[in-house]
Amino acid sequence: MTTTSTSATSSQILHHTATFVSEALSQSEIRRRLFSILRRKLTLSPPPSHDPTALIKPLNLAAETLDNAITSTSSTVRSSSLRLIENLLLSHPENSVSSLLLSLTYGLWRRPVDAALSLLDVFRLDPSSARSEIAPSLFEELFLIHLLPVLRELNDRRSKILSISTTSPPPNNNNLFTNTFYDDDDDYSINDEMGAVPSTKSLSKMSDEQASELKILETEYEEVVDENCRVLAKYLKEVLENEDKGDNINRLTFHPPLTIMQTSQALDDHRGFNEDRPMRTEQLSRISVNGRRPRHVERNRNMALFESRQSQTQKPEQPGLAESSCSPDNVIGKQTPPKDFVCPITSNVFNDPVTLETGQTYERRAIQEWLDRGNDTCPITRQELQNTQLPKTNYVLKRLIGSWQELNPDLVAAVNHSENLCIGIDQVVNSNSDMMPSNSPNSVISQATIEGTVSELRHAISNLCTSEILKESETAVLRIERFWQEANMEHDIQIMLSKPPVVNGFVEILFNSVDSKVLRATIFLLSELGSRDKAVIQTLTQVDSDVECIAALLRKGLTEAIVLIYLLRTSILDLTKLDLVDSLLMAINNKERDLFNMCVKPKTAAVILLGQVFESCDETTAASVVNSMVSGKEIESVVDCLGAESSEERIATVGILVKCMQVDGKCRNIIADKAELAPVLESLMGPNDGERFEMINFLSELVKLNRRTFNDQILHIIKDEGPLSTMHALLVYLQTAPDDQCPTVAGLLLQLDLLTEPRKMSIYREEAIDTLISCLRNTEFPGVQLAAAETIMSLQGSFTTSGKSLTRATLLKRAGLDKSYNNLVRIDQLSSFSAEAEESLKEEEKAAENWERKMASVLVSHEFGLLFEALSEGLRSTDSELCSTCFISATWLVDMLKTLPDTGVRGAARVCLLKRFASIFKSSRNTEEKILSLLALSSFIQEPGEWRIWTSFTHFISSWGIKDLWSHKQLVQVDCSENGEVLSLVSFKDKIFSGHSDGTIKVWTGKGSILHLIQEIREHTKAVTSLTILPAAEKLYSGSLDRTSRVWSISDKAIHCIQVHDMKDQVLSLVISNTVYCFIPHGSGVKVHSGNGSSKLLNGSKHVKCLALVQGKLYCGCQDNSIQEIDLATETVGTIQIGSRKLLGKASPVHALQIYGKILSTSDYNIVGSLVTTLEVRVMAISSELIYLGCKKGSVEIWNREKLNRIDTLQTGSNCRVLCMALDSTEEVLVFGTSDGQIQAWGLS
Fold it and tell me: Which residues lie in coiled coils (predicted)?
């Protein structure tokens, strides 16, 4: 056997481990058997202070996920699952099961080295199971060959116990003495080694004492083999790790130091071994690989162990390697570096020598570390140093050393080689020596190449720091960048470049250069240095102007500067002051490939910095940034970052998106449509609690869409598409989450549980509702109480486009008040003119009703109405916000009792809430609160016998009339009689526009109870008869008797005319649709005027009095009481109401025409209702609940829109005509103008 055959190489290790992993991955039965063995042993012998159940549960979860990943055909799902398993197991206490799972995971992930390392960990953690049950073949191939001295000693010890002539070894099918590890024909069969002991002797011929000694021997042998398995596993891992890192360690013949059964002559000489004394592992363990004994002792012992075997089988190899030891003399003979060239502290040849005032010379880093520890004396002479500031490098000595190294290149290589042999493998890998490592220690040419590179690099650094010529400095930067990219010496170059003068030289380039290539190279180098050495960051942040310069370069388009600012971010007090938002958004949206492979991707850095900006900015700035993101579509690029590998980037992305949804809820639909939720769901299983809650909060915000069906789709994705059980992860997190996070987590968990029909029992549902009730009762933390109350209220499931709960507005709508609901719901959700949209709306309503029913059912039935008791306590709170939220939640749940089966919880609700609702109804001055409390009270009188509960407060209800619901009071009256009649009014946002008979247009703003005139314009020469607004374009259109129509811009503070159209006829009334103007001329018919100046007359047989334009159809109210519908596209005319002319007297012209709400069909024009009034109606305004009729004799009638009954009449105080009306956007202020020049505003109180 050769030396190399006894010392496994990395390729051999990888071959054998890959064979085992491949076989386990391909056969599920093998995996189940292996997991079962290790789980059973882990359960019986858990690590100290660990609960076996808590250890096994995540391991079972990981095993299940691994099986899913193996069978999955999707590469994305497989990659996500494997990453999740890795994160889960690395956060779990190390044990043999987790190591085996990691090995199989890495094998499936095509990471053979990691798979082998984890598999070797199984032998290290549980060697007995690993060699006998888990991987016996792997033990044979990699381990047993090293244990031959141990087995030989075992044979000798057995021979001494058993007399060959009288005894034989006891048969034991399970012990390790039989041919378990080798086949009969193996060259190194254990039976061959133990041939002196016949195997045909019976157990009956053995004495009791011999049997006892053999049993003890077996036990001790097991212990020694286990100990050696651990040692060998560590050794094999070192071989793999060093090979993976590119070291040449494995080319040498290293042997693992072993704990053995020592009877060989070599060991007898050292320790005087007593053959009759039983061996003990603890006595021998001091020789094991634990770092307590110098490596040369271990290596010499190892050589002694294998001496007899190698003397027979080893072929002659390199003498230098076979006889190598740690003594430099064995390598280089009597040739050693001159004493003056060696540092007395490090014992290495000087690289940067400095001579102290005492005359002693040391390596700079070594003496600096000595001084940093608080010493102020010379290490050798112990003289006190007057100056602890190190002097400059001793270049005279450095040149002498360089000359000596040039004359003795072989000696230098040999010294380096011997140093590598004298230190441990880990020290070789992690060495931080300042000596330049050669590409090949034995190659003089390679050493000369490195010396030349270093010389060029030093010259470039000198030019950078000292040259007065900008071009030379720029050239130096490009050369340094090239060295960094090509020389493969980043660590050594880093030491040279990290010094403050060099860093300041780079900064000078940033200030002075205008070459983008040079600037990018400089930023790249500073970023790489800063990511490796914090001292560089400190140097850059010492001067504020340096940071400002880098920020200015970023604003000018140097995207790479983002990475450097990212590295400086902890030292920058306020990122918002640097005005980087636009640059960050541009970098996030950048699709071009990065020019440099930087330590952090610019897009990643931009996302993290943007997240930091959101954390530190005020609400106004945040709103501005969100608007920019939505308008520029950068938000879609941010959404793509949810799948980033960096957890910091994912957390920043989630924080940004949550802020966007909170500031501008309309972007919630964009995020829901574009987001890939798999990485977010994967992060729920991560070890970082802060990251997990960020993801949970994001998901909770995401399911507040204004479409119930969309919400259900997102919830199904969250529940089903996670790599592991999302609900289980939420439940586990909920049990340990801080109080302020519990309502959010519980709310999301409850929604996921309700995706299917509620079951009788669900641990997820029970835990979630219990948590919400507990938080609602937690009076020590009012913020937690309010969060729980808001979560319960939002579970109703209806939201606006901005994500606000519609629970209150929905309840008011059920009580008959549509105004609040319609104000909150998008107009396109209410106004739909297509059959498809109408069908979709019905589907939405059905889904919303189903969700609300299921949610209310599980809430009210939990613990027989326990939630009602908690809400009742909240209604007594002195916190008005908490009390109001609990009131809405209680009203909703009590109102839902009408539709739910009566299981007895209505009685619990009555006991807890009846008196509270009655009290609110009696004492509240808020009309909506009275209505909601009345709605709740009505739920308690569903049964005839329950009418008795009304007797105590029926007189309060009877005294509260319908006028109290829609009470109006006059806010202000303005006299504009000097401008003549007020002919037209229109409202937009917070402004009111009025047109007068003298051609004046006035602009008003309503603040408090006063109308403030902010602008007055008179560009029309005759009466302004009509004003109309296109909200999307923010333009005001005016029509006048001067035969013109003017277009006004109203987006600024003051309005101004931007266009004038010659209408060729007087404009009595005007309506607009895009570029089409429809107006009533002085004569008959209606004129349609297009943007190109052409016009045509339609419906010429009728004298039109009023117009309305909706969806390309024009509706005309005529003098003869008829109403026509004109399709502008086809110019066809249809009749809605046939006119009539009285034989005697005047006809009844249609003076006012309004279209409100949605039109389902225009095929049937039958009248569905009418308002009977004795007054002549001149103008009309409609809100979601009321109809206002402006009449001839100075009065305004108010009618209920649903019941068509008159509620009240407002009096203007004169006998004039009401000519125009307008409602503000909230429908709470009515403004009308009269024929005597008065403008009045009335408020709905």
Answer: 834-861
CA distances from 891 to 808, 895, 933, 1187 (A): 9, 6, 7, 29
Residue with tokens 């009742």: 872
The token pair at 517 is: 């290539």
What is the DSSP secondary structure assignment for residue 377, as one 8-state letter? B
Residue 843 identity = E
- pTM exceeding 0.90: no
pLDDT of residue 1001: 95
Beta pairing partners, 354? 362
Q: Are 794 and 711 in contact (CB under 8 A)?
A: no
Indicate whether 725 and 771 sit together in one domain: no
Q: How many CA atoms lie within 13 A of 790 on its CB side?
A: 19
The strand pairing partners of 1072, in sequence order, are 1077
Task: Map residue 861 onto helix, strand or coil.
Answer: helix
In a domain? residue 1040? no
Within 13 Å and on the Cβ side, how many CA atoms surround 335?
Answer: 14
With beta carbons less than 8 A apart as the criterion, state whether 19 and 142 touch.
Answer: no
CA distance 1191 to 1212: 10
Tokens 């009240």, residue located: 1208
Could you give the C-alpha distances from 812 to 815, 822, 841, 935, in angstroms and in order?
5, 11, 20, 9
Residue 309 lies in a domain: no
Using 70 as the pLDDT threshold, list the residues of the chain that sit under it. Answer: 1-8, 45, 47-50, 163-207, 243-336, 410-453, 487-491, 570-576, 592-595, 632, 686-688, 818-838, 942-965, 1007-1009, 1141-1147, 1157-1166, 1168, 1245
Q: Which helix (DSSP H) or strand (DSSP E) does residue 1135 occupy?
A: strand 1132-1137
| 1177 contacts 1152 by C-beta, under 8 angstroms | yes
Sheet of 1095-1098: strand order equals 1069-1073, 1076-1080, 1086-1089, 1095-1098
The rounded distance, in Å, linking the Cα atoms of 601 and 572 is 20
Residues paired with 1076 in a beta bridge:
1073
pLDDT reported for residue 7 = 56
**Contact partners, residue 72, CB within 8 Å, separation at least 6:** 78, 81
How far from chain centre, in Å, is Cα 54? 27
pLDDT at 680: 84
User: How far is CA 332 from each of CA 248, 326, 413, 708, 788, rounded to the nearest angstrom?
Assistant: 20, 11, 10, 82, 78
Give per-residue pLDDT as tens, 1084-1106.
Answer: 899 998 877 788 899 888 899 99
Predicted local confidence at residue 633, as pLDDT: 76
The reply to whether 116 and 51 lie within a common domain is yes
Neighbours of 784 (CB within 10 A): 21
User: Which run of H or of E encompasses 993?
Assistant: strand 991-996
Per-residue confidence (pLDDT) for residue 436, from 0 to 100: 38
Describe the chain by its helix, strand, coil percentages, rounded to 5.
Answer: 55, 15, 35
Spatial separation of the C-alpha atoms in residues 533 and 497, rounded to whole Å = 10
How many residues in the chain?
1245
pLDDT at 193: 38
The CA R_g of the chain, rounded to the nearest whole Å, is 44
Rounded to whole angstroms, the Cα distance separating 68 from 628 reads 43
C-beta neighbour count of 575 within 10 angstroms: 21
Q: Is 542 within a domain?
A: yes
Q: By C-alpha distance, which of 1108, 1098, 1076 is closest to 1089? A: 1076
Same domain as 227, residue 101? no
| 1204: amino acid identity, one letter | L
Residue 740 lies in a domain: no
- For every residue of 698-754, DSSP letters joined together read HHHHHT--S-HHHHHHHHHHHHHSSSS-HHHHHHHHHTT--GGGHHHHHHHHHHHHT
Residue 219 has which token pair? Answer: 């036990």
Tens-place pLDDT, residues 279-332: 333 333 333 333 333 333 333 333 333 333 333 333 333 333 333 333 333 333
End-to-end CA distance of the chain: 103
CATH code for the domain of 425? 3.30.40.10
Query: How many structural domains is the chain composed of?
Result: 7
Predicted local confidence at residue 1213, as pLDDT: 81
